[in-house]
Automatic annotation (TrEMBL):
This is Non-homologous end joining protein Ku. The keyword DNA damage applies. It comes from Streptomyces griseoviridis. With LigD forms a non-homologous end joining (NHEJ) DNA repair enzyme, which repairs dsDNA breaks with reduced fidelity. Binds linear dsDNA with 5'- and 3'- overhangs but not closed circular dsDNA nor ssDNA. Recruits and stimulates the ligase activity of LigD. GO terms for molecular function: double-stranded DNA binding. The gene is ku.
Amino acid sequence: MRSIWNGAISFGLVSIPIKLVNATESHSISFRQIHTEDGGRIKYRKFCDLEDREVSTAEIGKGYEDADGTIVPITDDDLASLPLPTAKTIEIVAFVPADRIDPLQMDAAYYLAAGGAAAAKPYTLLREALKRSNKVAIAKYALRGRERLGMLRVVDDAIAMHALLWPDEVRAPEGVAPETDVTVNDKELDLADALMNTLGEVDLTDLHDEYREALEEVLAAKATGDTPRSLPDHARSGKVLDLMAALEKSVRDAKETRTEEAEVKPLRSPKKSARTPKTPDPKKSTSTKRTTTKKTQTPRKSTSTKTTSEKATTKSTATTKKATRKRTTPQKRTA
């Protein structure tokens, strides 16, 4: 992986040369702006508003607009010479429990790679110290023209750093919660708990971006001139008419889904018996097969498992046989 920043971790008087590497990547599909009439690409050209001409990238620099509209030019040398100890150093300032970090503060994630063989020993020392303490390191560093806050933690055998927003950059949730007083009863909470338990847990590696897959399918169809297949509408109404009914139906649906998923799982093949299987009698009906199977499983209750129709059939067959015997029995001769 290509490093995006080279520097060092400052751990007290210990300095650990490191390379900053992106820990995440985006798989989103990007689009181009086109002219809808002919499909031509839309391009943006950069013009100087004073000279009214297009300028090249080499002619473009940075500038800060003051309150009165005055532009103050800022060069890369100005930014590189800022009087900050964190300009090329990730300076650890504290070690705190991980639950002290509000997830709202978490931003981009990076891996910190050891910068050469000399960094292996202090890198490993910091990693093992973090593991044993069950804490994360809070650090300050400068990247892309500003000083930032970071959190260092151990991921497998590597040290990862999460960029953190400064506390004053996180908005308070004012006006977000419902303003109306609402009472939730125990039965509703029990149903919500039942739904949570039915849905259970999930392995995050099993989840995937269905929107991206559907979009790729549409793009592939349009590229070959085919008509994209219509996708099912998963839109749901946000209006809840009956909360209890919705919860009960959700629990039922979740149980059915779990049952279907369990049924489609492959089962182990049964062990083959050494005995030769008996050839089934074609004269026997399906109901007789069920009865035979049931008799084999529970031989003591085989008599009681006959249905009313089977009893009637047996009785009728016995009567017929009796009548047949009467007709076929030869009469005794008289002397």
